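Thanks for the sequence, V.! I ran Sel1 repeat family protein right away. Repeating your input here for the record:
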Amino acid sequence: MERNLAKAFRLYWQASDNCRPARERLNKDSYQGQLAKWLKKAVNRKDLADADLAEAMCMLGSCYQHGWGVDDDMSSAVEWYRKAVDADGHVSPDALCGLGDCYAGGKGVKQDWEKAVALYRQAAEMDAPEAQYLLARCYDDGHGVETDMKEAVRLYKKAANNVCENKGYYGHVGAMRCLGDCYTTGNGIRKNAKQAAVWYAKATELEAASK
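Predicted structure:
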């Protein structure tokens, strides 16, 4: 039951960016309370496999970041994300992105875009679409790196086309929309109104399918 609860949270969390029911499920106080209570126990267990322990630490960090079942506390979020990133035998791309977000926003730590970029890059190299999208935004906006729209477009394409049902990846809606914007403006890629329309339509379709 406890493992099923954690697995359910992970699936809802992965889907929450694009899926309204997933967001609603995560926002239920009763679910959050059960989850946070179990995670606090799980991170102190000695019998969890390294990968499971790292995931539990990462999920607890997310609970503190978003106030899911606990008072929001960015210092605690950073602490648990760091523990998840440094865990033996397993590195969670979700923890890397979570910690990267903290550095990007200066939440719980001093703002440091270069550290955020390094964390996003590490997760992107693990083929995580959210990390690919976040790293693309850094190149697009010139945060922590020099602006490079060609690299931004390359990463938007990777995130938009990143489909892996076993991992719950079905492409990244935000990346699809940004790619549509790039084709519309000719920023980083040759203008192509037809391709822009294709990517806007794909984003709308994916978002609608997840509701």
